[in-house]
Design brief:
The protein is α/β, with parallel strands linked by helices. 59% of the residues lie in helices and 9% in strands. A hairpin with a 6-residue loop joins strand 8 and strand 9. Helix 4 packs across helix 6, helix 4 packs across helix 7 and helix 14 runs antiparallel to helix 23.
Amino acid sequence: MTRSRTAPSISIVDVLRGIARRKLLILTCLGLALGAGAALLSVVRPVYTTEAQVLVENLATPFDRPQGETAQSLSVIDDRAVQTEMNVMKSQDLALRVINSLQLANDATFNPLLSKPSKLSALKVRMGFKPNPKAMSLEQGALMAMEDSLTIYQLPLSNVIAIKYSGGTPAQAAAIANATAETYVASTREARYSPTERAREWLAREIESLRTKVAESEAAVEDYRSKAGLIQGQTTTIGAQQLSELNSQITLAQAARTEAEAKAEAIRRELASKGTVESAPEVTASTMIQRLREQQAAATRRIAELSATYLPNHPKMIGANEDYANLERQIRRESIKIAEGLESQAKVAAAREKSLRDSLEQLKVKESTANVDEIKLKALERDAAANRSLLESLLSRYADASVRTDEDLQPARARIIQRASVPVTPSFPKPGPLMLLLSVAGLALGLGLAFVLEVMRAATALHNAEDLDVRQASAASLVVQPSGPAVVEPVFHPAAPPPFSSSVAPAAAVAPAAAAVAAAAMAEPHHLNVIARLPDLATLEAARAAADALMHGDSTGLAEGAARITGALLPLHQTYAMGRFGLLGIAASDTACAVAALAVARGLAGARQRVILLDVDAEDRAFDEIAGLSQSPGLSDLVSGSADINRIVVRDSQSSAALVSFGTVRHAAAASLVRERLPQTLDTLTAIYDVVLLHLGPARPVTPALAALCQAVVVLAAPSRAREAHAAAAILTGQGVGEVLHVSLSDPA
């Protein structure tokens, strides 16, 4: 391999061999790590961890809820409520209750203030990293120890709060975790009991006050009623009852008077019209009238009997007729008496009616003043009723609160679903994992130190070698001095044209590198280092067959040569961060250069590199035929706008490499546009792929401009074209190419 500039580097193989020689350093670091682990296990006090779990939920039932409180009125348990309960658990008041219940403040195994401080702790106190234990009380020390060892957190996607404690002894750790859970649950009962007790005391005071108010208001009602004369009857006041009764009596008296007058008038009218009363019920119902009617009927029978014997003028007939007339007169007189009696009854009823009406008027006058008093009385009664209703309500609530005076009967806000068990093994330190971790750390430290030392040694040796080269070059310049100015002419092989030549070669393509070409042409071919050898597959059929057999037992030597080229390009990519490589043929066939580019792309893809191969040779279609891209759009289609980037990138059939054809449009304008936009395209592809490979094709006048976009170029040339290859390397170096690799083309075996 011949490079335009020599870049000495450190061999990773030498570094690895040097690391293998430093076994003592690695074993020493490993032994120190194991010793530190053993010392740590002997010094560190074991820590035991246990956990209790509390479920936050509403435990109230319909039987222990206050009257009027429904299930919907209870608070909803959400993440915010759980966070609130966690803050309650972390409060110092709750921690002090746990400390006092377990007497942890006087426990030397728990309270750090009861143990003698170490020198390190005293130094931390003096430097201000720790509070002064002498200024703290025993309870403050116990609180500090509990805060350091107690962890409270919410289990994901649940209302469960875990209480984890890491203590010095197993029994103490379990006791503290369980005591914290129990104290918290008890505090939730107390939180419900305290408001109930305060409400009960307030209700008791209000009830006593209301009892006095109710008694006073009811006494005021009765006192005013008695003073106003508003005596209460069965349903209303006495005055109202009297008014109602008087109205009823007046109505009855008026009806009796009217009835008596009507009956008397009927009797007199019948007497006046008929002379007798036969149909009046009062007359017919009279006992005297009934006897007189019987005597009159007997007198009538006697007259009928005598008329059969005597004449009307007979004294017996006359006597019988007089008896009958007397009876008729008596009946009339009795009827008149009955009528007069009915008239007397009517007069009595009228007098009674008048008396009742006079009493009614007097009572109305009295009741008109009593209505105002009754309004005032009703106001007093409303006040008394309101006080009485409020008293009854408070008595009911007081009875409800009195039922909940027992704190144990209060529903808790949470319940313990898991009690902390006594741990059997310590949670820290664990001897096995700790020793394994320290062993890995010690081994890594030893390997790291060995690697650094070897890299430093190799860098020192490399620096010394560079100094030696500089000194040798200075000595050579002193010995060989030119006798005068020399004119260097470019010398080419007579059987081959100069590199990058054509029938019309623009001077701008060669002039900038004229001096480099002249100097390179003077070199001898046998000084060139060849990194690989490839067969010169001149025919399209041979190139296609070799490409197809590349992954299946190649017999042409293409696979071996491509592997060597890949092995030379990978260090440039990995060490010098080069990502753009080009393949150029010097007096080589189009097919040889194309199949070599495809073989190198597959080799890089096999080395787990994301590689894309671009065909930028606008004058030949050998690459499309070998890669199977004859009908695929490419770079020319992309720049002309007939295809996008997703259509022109094709996956290689035998590897993970991406292939891009020059395109279906190959006229001069399209080629010029591709060269104009190629830098932007390469910048985009470099950000996506690890390696961007350019198939430059055989050397042409535009080749230096295209090769200048690459960081390294692989030049394919037959042994007979070594001078041209050397001249091409000089030109490419002048164009800014960092590395030029030489590959020899030979006939296939």
